Amino acid sequence: MNIEIAEIKASCKDAESLHERLIALGADYKGIDHQVDTYYKVAKGRLKLRMGNIERNLISYFRPDDVSVKKSDVSFQSIDEKSRIPEILARNLEILVVVDKKRKIYFIDNVKFHIDEVKSLGSFMEIEAIGNETKDLSFQELQDQCKKYMDLLEIQKEDLIHQSYSDLLMLL
Length: 172
Known about the structure:
Helices cover 23% and strands 45% of the residues. With 172 residues, the protein is an alpha+beta fold. An eight-stranded antiparallel beta barrel has the order 1-5-4-3-2-6-7-8, surrounded by four helices. The radius of gyration is 16 Å and the shape is globular.
């Protein structure tokens, strides 16, 4: 499946307050997912294998590294417990970095929210306004949704982060 996403990532100073604000906005809380994302060396873009108790996907994406609301072009394939994809990747591709995190997942309509506790990095918040076949929104509309929730959740521009967790871990 291919999707277009408008997204931000920000440092998170008070995860509990953010959780309470999301619930007050009517967010559907899906729970906590312990996710291990294995990033592989690839010629272009990013390729990661996400293994979690809620989300298990092979994800390929292209996204600029800047602090504005970013556009991501994402392709993903869900993986079940019997899949041999993790074994095949491990045998054939070189691992770039592994990101270990606990992620609280929320939804309001087509907008997904994450409150992440990333091992060795700290706490972060992500907003993803997701376009798909059933909700045909332009990138501008997705961007506007993302900005709306930044305002409602009081996310400041100075808290925005332009890099992925994988990039931040490789800087350590």
